[in-house]
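L-cystine uptake protein tcyP
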Amino acid sequence: MSVAVIANLTVFVGILYFLFSQQQKQNTLSRLVLIGLVTGSGFGLALQLIYGEGNAAIAQTLDWVKVVGSGYVGLLKMIIMPLVMVSMISAVVKLDKSGSLGKISGLTIGVLLFTTAISALIGIGVTHVFGLTAEGLTEGARETARIAVLESRAGRVADLTIPQMLVSFIPTNPFADMTGNRSTSIIAVVIFSVLIGIAARKVMAEKEELAQPITTFVEVAQSTVMRLVKMIMR
C-alpha cells in the first residue's frame, strides 16, 4: 500500500468520524443524507482532480472505501425481507375487522405489482426518450456477473403465461424466497406473511389464552426489526 493510498484512507476515516459526529448531534435523517452526499461527492471529486482518471492510487483507495459502501448496501438489503414479513404479520394480527383482511391483502399485492409496472415503464420510457444504450460502457467482473443473473431471471419469466405467472407468486419455499432468489420473491413473502397472520388470528380465536402471547410476540418482533432499521439507516 503506497503512501498516497494511506493518506487517502486517512482522509476517508476522518470523513467517517465527521459523519458520526453529525449523527450524534441528533440531526434529521434527511440532513444526514445530504451531508453524506456532499462530503462523499467532494471526496471523490478531490481524488479525481489530484490523481487523474485511471490512477492506481484511486483504484486501491476505492477498494477500501467499498468495504464501507458495499457493506452498508448489504445491510439495507438484509432488512428488506424481515421488515416486509413482520409488517405484514403485524398488520394482519392487529386487524380489528376480519372482513377487511382480503381487501388489504389484495391491495398490498396490487400496489406491489402496480409500482413494479410503473418502474419498468419509467425505465423503458427514459431509455427511448434519451436513446440510452449499453454501447461504450465498461464492464467489470461485478457488472458481468450481475448481467448474467438478470438475464437468467428474465429467461425464467419471459415465456410464462399469465396463469403460470400467478402460480409463481405462490411461496413453495418461503425461506428461499427470503433470500430474494426469484423475481417474485417479495410478493411470495407477502403472501406467506399474510397466511401466517391469518393462522395466528385463527389460533387467537380458538384459544383465547394464547391471544395475548401471540400479540406480544408480534409486537416484540416488529419493534426489534424497526429498531434494527433505525440503527442501519442512521
